[in-house]
Amino acid sequence: MNRFFRRTLSLFLSASLACSLGISAAASNALGEDLSTRDTLLNQETQLSTNVFWSSAYSDLRTENVVTYTPNEDVTPIVTYGDTLTSRITVSSAAKGLESKGYRVVAGMNGDFFNTSTGLPIGLVVSEGELLSTDGGYYAIGFRADGTAVLGKPTVKVSADLGYELLNDYGTPTEVVRQLTGVNKARVSTGGIYLYTYDFNSRHTTGNTEAGVDVICTIDRGSLTIGGEMTATVDQVVEATSATAIGPDQIVLSANLQSSSYNVDALRRIPVGSTITLSVTASSEQWNDVEYAVGALYSLVENGSVVSGLSNSASPRTAIGQKADGTLVFYTIDGRKSGHSIGASLNQLAQRMVELGCVTALCLDGGGSTAITVTQPDELTAKTINTPSDGSERAVTNHVFLVASSEPTGRLGSFYVQADHSYVLAGSRVNISAAALDTNFIPMGDEPYDLETSAGTLDGNVLTTPAGGGDITVTAYSGSQKGSTTVHAIETPDSITVRNSSGTVVSSISVADGASAALVASAVYHHMALQADQDAFTWTVSGNIGTISNTGIFTATAPGTGTITVTAGGKSATVKVTVAGTGLESIENFEGSTTIFRGSGTNMDFSLTSASDYVKLGRGAAKVDYTLTEAGGYAAQWRAASSTAIGTQHSSLNVWVRGDGSGNTLSFLYSDGTTSSLLKPITTLNFTGWKQVSVPISGTFSIQGLAVSGSAASSGTIYLDQITASHDGIVDTEVPSVTASLDNAAWQLTATVADTVDGVLPKSAISVTCSGGSQKSAALDFSYNTASGALTVSLPQSQVSHDAMRLTITARDASGNIGRASVDVAPTSTNHKFTDIDGYWAATYVDFLYSTGITTGYEDGTFRPNQNITRAQFSAMLFRYLGLSESDYASVQLPFADNSSIPSYAVPAVKALYSKGIINGSTGADGKLYFNPNASLTRAQAATMIGRTQEKGYATTALTFSDAASIPSYATYYIQTMVAQGVISGYSDGTFLPNASITRGQMAKILYNLL
């Protein structure tokens, strides 16, 4: 082909086919139904096609990569190997090596089969014209300098004139000539004479382990080329018992002593200093000018027909073929990856090569060796584009590459245009990118260009495909230089599927009234997932249960049942919806650092507290200090910086109030959408302690603040917690139900979460923690079915420990109620951490405290489990249990009269626990506050201190202990909730003994149960 015409044609192709995409109309008889194809012009007359098929026989995909190459002067085929013939490296590593030498790697793939133990290729290797390995009777492909190729059986023979004469049977002196068995092949015991070169292995030896005769020669002239000769001078003839070293300018002729005397004696008789001559021939002279060659185990196609007797087992495959016009086809198909590609049999591979136009084709190494790398037009380095079946590339013995110059010309030649998605649901958006290429196919960096589209609309580089679908061509251009890509917008998909926000396919969902649920639709066409924007679907709701946005966000507005239907192009999917009638929604839980009441007050101070005794639910509550004076009508108020709108589906607000017994009135400041600063009474403050009140609301209701009013001057402090909006005045004080079990064999936790008022809770309301080993608590990810409340956790092996472990599921409903369940994993080790706990009933829990760094025991290696724990000791233990930081509380001033008696090890803990309201001390007879660090801790005190570390909102239970009346009032709530949770219990005789001392062992179990 004329060079100018070839260059002009190539530039035309780069403009029109640089990224041509389409759905083939015909199926491949070999591989199945054509799903997609992507063609990319990589360089001069070198095109990559990535094609996906559907195999109905396997109900799975097949993915192939085909590089079609027409020999030309700009792109050259070569064969590479590692540092030596038997070294193994990956295709991508070989590509990096070529790039370091100044080549642009157009494409490359793995080469010949090889011995996986030694790295020896089974067949022919020629590099830079030099014969490195004979063919062994197998097939090969050879490449000439102009890129043309010859395929077939080369039947390379190497003849050695050994440089001396012997008398023949007629008494005539005759040159001693021997046919070599192989070049750089493993020496077989009775195989004859072998030749080894410096490139054979990394040790640069013959690699032999059995006795033989080795003739070491220095190369004089010539080289081992097919059709050529080499001469060498004999340096030594040695009786070798192991591998013989080979120098860079040497060769070694070698025969095993078990070989015939015809060959062994011939080598022994070679005179040192004589000249041997090596001649190389092939079955045809067309192999004589081959610059590079690589072997192949199987012939697939001969004379345009599939070779008979090929196997029918599917695997990853690598092949190379030649068309009648000399065009070469470099081919790989992935395999052993369900959902990506199942591979092909040799018979199917051969059929496919015929379909691709090959009249001759050979099979290279496959399986885990199959790998192909290319340099995309907008890249400077090559990358692997297939998915190797081993999960990563396998190091192989040799490789076939197409290389070109990496020298840029700086002249704009074309544009490489891509869409981030080639197949989309009609109406969806895709991003278009374009890279400028010079006339040598080297990316040029930022070159200005314009985009135009054949259909749809462009907003910058974003294409919105037309609702009617079709093939859309987007062209980048600058002057006469162009490049295009085609986006396929599918109007009618084959099917639509709906998933929830966790990615689980759903056919039904349950949503609390007033809550929202995000649904995601996906579409499939010809077994391919389409890129689909949610607003490319049409979403509708039936049943008057709520509304849905054009992106699939459903908002429940009324209890009942109905359906959500999503459609596209006449296809649809339906989801059944149940809206629970509670309509509960948390408006403010006072758990964060800010609240809806941030703003300013008049005669009222608003703050947050985390003191457990003043919190109803969670860990935080609002503290409201007010002063009523005659000015302004004995009123105080706190006005929020912005309003908080309550949904019109809600008919009441539930509020927990801790009254001060003042008789004053607490009210919301609110707006009805027309008038601001209206008053909505919450409750009359004629009580003390916590009380939940329900405030009826209707229509538009936006909270603007709080107000306290009365008939006389007064001051007081009240507390607020958990403001919840509800439907039909429903008040929820029931904790969620959580049940859990552990399958030790599968190492899987299963649980069910339910709430009689809220219905199924969202995943965000649930947490799973794992405690044990070296960590006190770690969050675990989990799968959750929002329709059934079923939860599953597959525990990672990193969580497995020799120590006891506790797995806990915690669920919080919209009203702040908390439910939990735990399962325990027994320790696998019987070696305890302390010397005095063998056989002790709480040894497992003591070990747990040690492993998680909560206790270190005593210096003598004992724990002393039956010893009463002091208030100082327990403070230190609880400090470590909570994971508190000493530096955060260093400036705290303790108010205790006996500060000097607190042991130094416990001072940081006492400061921290006092600051957090966990310890308060007690008033002595002198009226002073004491901590009493060395006093034994009572069971009631321990329950209170531990209870103050927990969130509020867990279940409580009536106390049935026979001595319940002796439980101090300050401890009653904490014992009630911890008994309900199973954290603490009484004695077998029905007593609790609140004033009895608690032992160190008992404390270990309580802290463990609390997790």
Task: Tell me the layout of helices and strands.
Elements (H helix, E strand, L loop, with lengths): L2 H14 L3 E3 L10 E11 L2 E10 L4 E10 L6 E6 L9 H10 L2 E8 L14 E3 L2 E4 L5 E6 L4 E4 L4 E11 L5 E7 L2 E2 L9 E5 L14 E11 L6 E12 L9 E7 L4 H8 L6 E7 L8 E7 L1 E5 L2 E2 L10 E7 L4 E6 L12 H10 L2 E7 L7 E3 L8 E2 L13 E8 L6 E8 L3 E3 L3 E10 L11 E4 L3 E3 L2 E3 L5 E9 L2 E10 L4 E5 L8 E5 L3 E3 L1 E6 L2 E3 L7 E5 L3 E3 L4 E4 L3 E9 L2 E10 L4 E4 L10 E4 L1 E6 L11 E8 L6 E12 L5 E9 L4 E7 L6 E7 L3 E9 L4 E9 L4 E13 L10 E7 L4 E7 L11 E7 L2 E5 L3 E2 L5 E5 L10 E8 L5 E8 L17 H9 L19 H12 L24 H9 L6 E2 L5 E2 L8 H9 L21 H13 L18 H11 L1
Parallel strand pairs: 13-14, 29-35, 37-45
Antiparallel strand pairs: 1-2, 2-3, 3-4, 4-23, 5-27, 6-25, 6-27, 7-8, 7-19, 9-10, 9-19, 11-12, 11-18, 14-17, 15-16, 15-17, 16-18, 20-21, 20-24, 22-23, 22-24, 25-26, 28-30, 30-33, 31-34, 32-33, 34-35, 36-39, 38-43, 39-40, 41-44, 42-43, 44-45, 46-56, 47-50, 48-49, 49-56, 50-55, 51-54, 51-56, ...
Helix pairs in contact: 5-10, 6-7, 8-9
Descriptive overview:
The structure is a single chain. This protein is mainly β and 1011 residues long. It folds into seven domains: 31-153 and 288-405, no CATH class; 157-281; 412-486; 495-580, Immunoglobulin-like (Sandwich), CATH 2.60.40.1080; 585-726, Galactose-binding lectin (Jelly Rolls, Sandwich), CATH 2.60.120.430; 737-825, Immunoglobulin-like; 865-1005, no CATH class. It contains ten helices and 66 strands. Strands 1-2-3-4-23-22-24-20-21 form a nine-stranded antiparallel beta sheet. The protein has an eight-stranded mixed beta sheet with strand order 12-11-18-16-15-17-14-13, with helices on one face. Strands 46, 48, 49, 51, 54 and 56 form a six-stranded antiparallel beta sheet that branches. β65 and β66 form a beta hairpin. α8 crosses α9. 46% of the residues are buried.
